[in-house]
Amino acid sequence: MAQFDDSLKAALYRITCPDSAALGHYHLGLLPDAAATPIAEHLAICPHCTQEIAQLEAFLVETAVSHQPSISERIKVWIAKRLPTGGQPQAGWSSPTFAVRGGDTGPLMYEAGDAQLSLEVQDDPEHPGRKSILGLVLGIDTANVAARLLQADKEGTAVPLSPGGNFAFTNLAVGPYQLIITGPDIEIHLPELTIA
Ligand SMILES: [Zn+2]
After folding, report:
1. How far, in Å, from the CA of 61 to the mean position of ligand 1?
2. What pLDDT band is residue 4 in, cutting at 50, 70 and 90?
3. Which of 22, 46, 94, 110 is surrounded by the fewest CB atoms within 10 Å?
4. Ligand 1 centroid, distance to 88 Cα (angstroms)
5. Do 47 and 78 reside in the same domain of the chain?
6. Separation of 33 CA from ligand 1 center, angstroms?
7. Are residues 25 and 101 in the same domain?
8. How far does Cα 151 stand from its chain's mean position?
9. What's the 58 CA to ligand 1 centre distance in angstroms?
């Protein structure tokens, strides 16, 4: 008799239950609020749907390989902030090898998440009237990291960082640029870099 009661109760509950697809979409957070709210309220009182969600959860854990967060969720994106000129370097910030040359104003310093970035714009000795950028990235693993310099909507060239974090661009026209440093799990954006 207890058995019968349970299945009767189950049947009564399930009349008002959302279907499995709706539960699944709810669980994955795919439903708009208007659709999600009644399901949330139903789940609060319905042991059957709660159990169904638990089974779904177990299934998702088993198949987690195909449900890894997308690349965009795993990559840390940092916007570089210019550090005030003459400011005290942070702890752990070592002087870039090519920091100060005679007559130069010194490197531009940026901070982006865990990374520190130093850029020095110079005349390109091999290309009269053109500029070069010497860069140094510290604070991150530089394996498989590349620096990309973009001008307007042009793709621009990418150069790999040296193991020490150095990179260089040469033969540049003056003008506004964007610098993007990309690695396996980081992206550093320097949206406004004007070479003058
Ligand atoms: Zn239910």
Report:
1. 22
2. low
3. 94
4. 61
5. no
6. 18
7. no
8. 22
9. 18
Among residues 33, 67, 101, the one where a domain terminates is 67
* Same domain for 21 and 114: no
Angle, in degrees to the nearest 10, between helices 47-62 and 33-45: 110
Query: Are 38 and 108 contained in the same domain?
Result: no
150 has which bridge partners? 178
**Domain boundary at 46, 67, 88, which?**
67
Ligand 1 centroid, distance to 36 Cα (angstroms): 14
Residue 8 belongs to domain spanning:
2-67
Report the CATH number that the domain containing residue 144 is assigned in CATH: 2.60.40
Span from the CA of 35 to the centroid of ligand 1 (angstroms): 15
pLDDT in tens, 96-153: 444 444 345 678 899 998 899 999 999 999 999 999 999 999 999 999 999 999 887 6
End-to-end CA distance of the chain: 87
- Could you tell me the distance, in angstroms and rounded to a whole number, from the CA of residue 5 to the centre of ligand 1? 17
The reply to whether 29 and 126 lie within a common domain is no
| Cα-to-centroid distance, 42 and ligand 1 (Å) | 6
- State how far the Cα of 52 lies from the Cα of 65, in Å rounded to an integer: 21
The set of residues, in sequence order, having a beta carbon less than 8 Å from that of 135 and lying 6+ positions away, is 117, 118, 119, 120, 147, 166, 167, 168, 169, 179
Query: How far away, in angstroms, is 48 Cα from ligand 1 center?
Result: 5
Query: What is the total count of domains within the chain?
Result: 2
Q: How far is the CA of 14 from the centre of ligand 1 (A)?
A: 5
Q: What was the pLDDT predicted at 38?
A: 92
| Position with higher pLDDT, 51 vs 75 | 51
124 shares its domain with 178: yes
